Amino acid sequence: MMDEVSPKAPPAPTVETEVEARAEAPQPRMSDHCTNDTPLDASEVANGPYFLALKEIVKLADVDVYVSKPMDAVSGTPRLVLMLTGGTGVMAKTNQIQADCFAQEGYFVVMPDLEAEDVHLGDSAPNAAAVTAHTENADLLETIKFKAAEGIKGFIIDMWLARHTPENTMPIIETVLKAVKETYADKAYDSSMGILAVGYCFGAKYVLRLAATDEIAAGAIAHGLLISKEDIAGVKKPVTLACVENDMFFPDEVRDGGKKQLQDNNIDHELKVYPGVPHGFAVYGSYSEEHIKTAQKQAFDQFLEFLSKH
């Protein structure tokens, strides 16, 4: 009679197997456009809005805040725009130029650093280049396939998102808004006209959250990230949305369901879908493809026209 063979226990997971398993089927949470700067052409930057606004980085309530205002503004007259960025953060040149674009149109713009932990130590989302460099320098990971490196990047981004929740992020925004009012109201901007808010990628969710309160008069968002049906259902202020066609980061069912919710609640809104553009297209950048550059300008004009009415 043959000896009975005990079944072998499954092998313990290793770093390689866990990373490869994650790389096989993770759900996308942030795109490279959320964590990497859009391209910039040096000559375009030299002649663009970056040099047509007065700007500085200041500390407000221990938070780094990029402040940009029109060069010809009369003290106390511009309207305030709160700009909330994607994962590249307040130090990214593209985000600073985008803020300057609004300043060039006559707005007083404040852009707080949302990417830090513990009111604010500086914790911008990991970009692809940084993750690649990290994996190339790690002996253990040199033998793992490319897809494993992608899995690691996804894991690091997920960890970043786990630290940057609404419970951590909204208090930063509220603290900065309070400090802005105390520091600048009626000196640098007209506080009687109401605050406008603009959000890109990660920051879009929080514009919708503000639009569910009386903190702002109107909001504008582009290619939102991690937006839920509840975020849209709570909106009670006018909003405009610039969306990407077939955007896995802002699924059609959430977008279309949100539009219906805004209609049912009689909220003044508009929603435009831009085909053939990448997630992140609306942030200032020097794309070579003409249709992306055109869509970028159209989205900016969409925001300007809508906000000017509110």
From TrEMBL:
Region called Disordered, residue ranges: 1-38
Highest rank taxon of the organism: Eukaryota
Pfam families reported in the protein's UniProt record: DLH
Gene3D superfamilies the UniProt entry points to: alpha/beta hydrolase
Domain Dienelactone hydrolase: 64-309
GO molecular function, one term: hydrolase activity
Record-given protein name: Dienelactone hydrolase domain-containing protein
The organism of origin for this protein: Tuber aestivum (summer truffle)
Upper taxonomic lineage: Eukaryota, Fungi, Dikarya, Ascomycota, Pezizomycotina
